[in-house]
Design brief:
It comes from Phytohabitans rumicis. The chain is built from 3 helices and 12 strands; from the N terminus they run βαββββαββαβββββ. It is an alpha+beta fold and about 170 residues long.
Length: about 170
Amino acid sequence: MASTDPVTTLDSRYSSANATATEWVRGRRELAQAEVYLLTTVRPDGRPHVTPLIAVWLDGALYFCTGPDERKARNLAENPHCTVITAGGTALDDGLDLVVEGDAVQVTDEARLRRIAGTYESKYGNEWRFDVRDGAFLNEASGVALVYEVTPVTAFGFNRAGEYSQTRWRFFV
């Protein structure tokens, strides 16, 4: 698991003159509060695959789920490198966009899965209630879903409110 206190740097090349680095505590809060994320994985032929999904932030990592036959699960089986993005709004001059880079690792421990499932239900409501069975989520409507954890290795924050800034957070294992 990565350090909870990343090295934080401001990239002045892409920041306003008086900008300051965004604190990781804000980045974490925004990752936890976001409702929609974009996951980028790599197809077997090297082309990117991007798809929207829902996710939860828990214990220093993002968690998402997908069916075992979906493109993203098949991509991750071949190459675990991925990027998860969430936008802080659609206005050009407001919000904090976040980019998290890391490896997606399948979670099969049933105690952890129950905790993650509870976080999904708390965040998204009863429609996203999952049972845990055989190392995966189970939902009446959608069937079996594999659960993945992405612990940040590097993350970026693009602040568009007030002074524009680009912050990099580097985590060390």
